[in-house]
Please model this.
Amino acid sequence: MAERLSNREGIRGMANPTRYGIERVAYWLQRLTGLGLLAYLIGHIYETSTIVNGKIAWDKMLELTQTPQGHILLTLVIGMCVFHTANGIRVMLGHGGIGVGKPGQPEYPYKAASLNYKQRLCIWVSIALAALAMMYGASVLFGD
Amino acid sequence: MAVVAVPKSSEESNSKMKTSPSNTITLRISRSNPAEGQESAFSEFQIPVQKWTTVLEAILYVKQNFDHSVAVRYSCRQASCGSCGMKINGKPALACYTKISELNSNVVTVEPMNNFPIIRDLAVDFKQLISNHKKMKPFIIREDSEVTPESKEFIQTPQDLEKFLQFSYCIKCGLCNSACPTMATDTSFIGPQGLAQAYRYVADNRDKGKDERLKIVDDSHGIWRCHFAGSCSQVCPKGVDPAMAIQLLRGYLLGFRK
Model:
């Protein structure tokens, strides 16, 4: 009841990337890819742990991953990994105050210096790198 | 150079007013009274608008002509008091500072700001914002701050002033807290407004309370919950740029700044 009265947006509001520009999209992607990589890590530990059950069990598990669906999943993991790393470096530097601009006299229409072209460029580069890595990964996985 | 136009005769300006194009829009106002258990519902009104009509003027038109019970907080009507923050077509903005013609829509929806308890309709409770602001000790801390006949004023260069000036323009409207994705889920988060104000005083070279303030923000619900989504700076109507202030403040804790 108290939470309803507080009018908090909750996870739905936090996870809505549509309202506040590319920086909010990057925030959303960073969270999404982080969760995706965590899920992959858990799956990966489960997959590799089957080796303790012997060679037959391990080969069976490998067969599961050597399918088109398994390749699509791995392609997505490559993309998530590259975006999370590249955008993560941008965010970490920003957290130290690097690349967020300098304080100054704000002038109408008050464009925020911290949301500068360098930040936006880094976000687009992270997306482009992820797309390139996914294309390369898919060509290796699906190639002969 | 500023150019001041000679005022036209009243007759001429009156005739212009009559012929200026007027438009009608639908204003949807979110109505609720949580204290009395009244769920949120929208009331719709047809409002005549000119190209300079602000959202606040449209709401006041409703109060004057249709329904005086609409609850809205406002005061200065010129983006100085920070009273009329609300969600306009889904984004937090000041109603007095948002022209309807800029929204490019014939339907304007106004709702109370998110992440604040609703008092009634569009009025929200600022208790948490003000209490977090106070927690940041928003004043100059130093032992010799009392002005005595022997003391001199604290001299600052324009460069010293520039380090904190923009952050002192905060009008405590709460738009940044409403847009912040962390505020959406963490009820104890200090919020971009409070953190930006902590930096405002830390960056002021007259102030000696840096360590005190850093201790306050160095908390699990403090500065570490900011993930630099930048939404606070997107919606700030005064160019305060809370996202920059927070990252610069974190630079002190991470050892990038002294």
In short: Chain A has a mean pLDDT of 92. Chain A is about 70% helix and 0% strand. The first helix of chain A runs from residue 2 to 5. Chain A touches chain B at residues 3-11, 13-14, 19-21, 23-24, 26-27, 30, 91, 94-98, 100-101, 103-108, 110-115, 119 (CB under 8 Å).
